[in-house]
Specification:
Blueprint: E1 6-7, H1 10-18, E2 24-29, H2 34-49, E3 55-60, H3 66-70, E4 78-83, E5 86-92, H4 97-118
Parallel strand pairs: 1-3, 2-3
Antiparallel strand pairs: 2-4, 4-5
């Protein structure tokens, strides 16, 4: 069970994120980005609390620009909420923890409802 954010390279993105059995929050960030540093501790908490239900993946856009370009990421932080290889929600910019958790709860509800319909 993964209890902390996973640092993902361009090479590992497809396997770690798009082929994941669990929903994934992908955080596109860079070390020099102030708002990214504000969001990081919130994502650390979410990764620990939702271990086994969700993966938090971090992509350093300075070192791994390929997927950021493919998804048209223009500002960071950009968080993509992905389930079954599809982007369900895109959040650009830092948010307070409460708002980010609301989006997360809605995302997980959508994912659960979608998988319930399949079964």
């Amino acid at each position: 069970m993964i209890k902390e954010p996973v640092h993902v390279t361009d090479a590992a993105f497809e396997k770690t994120v798009l082929q994941s059995n669990l929903p994934v929050i992908v955080d596109f960030w860079a070390p020099w980005c102030g708002p990214c540093r504000m969001v990081a501790p919130i994502l650390d908490k979410i990764a620990a609390e939702y271990a086994g239900k969700l993966i938090v993946a971090k992509v350093n856009t300075d070192e791994n620009p390929e997927w950021a370009m493919r998804y048209g990421v223009q500002g960071i932080p950009t968080m993509l909420f992905i389930a079954n290889g599809k982007v369900i929600h895109r959040q650009v910019g830092a948010l307070p923890e409460g708002m980010l958790r609301e989006i997360l709860d809605q995302f997980l509800e959508v994912v659960q409802n979608a998988s319930a319909k399949k079964n």
